[in-house]
Amino acid sequence: MILQPILALIVLRSLRKSLKTANLLAKWDRIFMIGTAVFIGLIVVNLFARNNSFVSWAAHALILVLMYSIFTEKDFLVAKPVAYAVLPLIIINLIEDVTKLINIDFYNHWKNYVETGALFAVVWMGAMLIINNKQRKALEKERLKAEEKEKEYRISETMKAALEVQVKERTSELTQQKEELQQTLDELKTTQTQLIQSEKMASLGELTAGIAHEIQNPLNFVNNFSEVNAELIDELHHEIEKGNWDEVKALAKDIKDNEQKINHHGKRADAIVKGMLQHSRSSTGQKEPTNINALADEYLRLAYHGLRAKDKSFNASMKTDFDESIGDINIIPQDMGRVILNLITNAFYAVTEKKKQSAQGLSTFEKLTTPYEPTVTVSTKKINGKIEISVADNGNGIPQKVLDKIFQPFFTTKPTGEGTGLGLSMSYDIVTKGHGGELKVNTKDGQGAAFIIILPV
Amino acid sequence: MKILVVDDEKDVQVLFEQRFRKEIRSGEMNFVFAFSGEEALIYLNQHEHEAVLILSDINMPGMSGLELLGHIKQKYHKPPPVVMMITAYGDAENYNTAKELGADDFLTKPVDFVLLKEKLKPIS
Q: Quick one: how far is CA A321 from the chain centroid?
């Protein structure tokens, strides 16, 4: 009988395949080789041996061991379906051989049934193997699919990892950029502070010459009047000796008047120095009752003399129209003083430019007597509970195309190095943010410009 | 001698009147004052040939002393009056412009009255 070893080979092969897919083959391969060799050996022996009953029984025993091991060894459980497929045939074979050995008559009597049974067992085996094979193929497909998915998953994992690395790189780049920007911003803020300071200093520079002139004038009077008084006192002694009492009285009165003049001009110089100190001092940011007319007048004169001292050919008429009913208003005097100074300086600059234009190609005398009369007018008004401070000039006006930009920081129409471009932008901030007011401009091309500060009382 | 003093500082009048009190009292000198270039021109128009000497500040709002000088020397009087310019800024530019326009002399502030008196002597 060679059926037994063949069945065993089928089972072994199937088992080997199953183990291979389950990746357990390495452990058992040697045993499979031996098993396969043994069963092939049995077949060969069976073909050539006369008495093959020993071979047959050996085959029976070996196949039973194989079956047993399939049902007991954990690793072999995968081969169970194949085992089920071949089991009936094996058992029928075994029963056949056993009954043949024990009682041949009995066997012969039941032979037909046994053979039918064997037939059924073969059919069973075939069907089972086919089903099994199909299932295995389906499983295999499933496995391949899973593997494919696994592969995709792994690829996506790799990509994810790569992306994560990229994201990390980008993040660190961005963080670095952010830090750089932050640093730049800090630097810009520092620069801004410095610029504000230098703008302040620049406006102080514009004032210095004016201040020097404004101080020089009263000091001249102080000196001159005190010299006069010295002379008058000499004369006074003289007249006393002569007993010319009317003259003595007149002289005494003059001396007293002169003393008042000295005092007046001394105070004038004092006020100018105080104003200068106030301008250079950083703002206290405190609003205090201030006479806006006096403030405007002071800065008008300082700006005028400042420009005058810098540019000897500069000249302009200053007109003032102050509403004396305003009285003191609550403002930050240093800040508002800077705004007014800035507006006045701009106005003087505008009229000077126009004068220069209209004087081009004229002689010295003609230059001095051109019909254009540069004029800067500073006026204050109280309207509907609001204070209006207007600084107007009769210069060239502001062209429409730059009108939108004049309050922007760093915008200037002055030649490089002459303007910081911060004057109006800072003025705007001081008026709007610092005082809750408005800064407006009216201009007509060729006819001048008027800046109007509107402050709530 | 009639002297026109032009300066925007009003106290200049008191100062001159006291400094030249003897000369004024003796009738040697007669001072008139104008507080702007425009005012000075009006005076000169109304009192032609009266002022022999004009002392003018340069730095005044409105019409400057140099403009006034130009007007006087170009348009007025034969012979034109002596014009002395007085300025707080004794710089070359002002000096040259004044000379170009025909200024007769140039003084710097603060006015040295001793020097001024000496300069006035030969004129009177």
A: 51
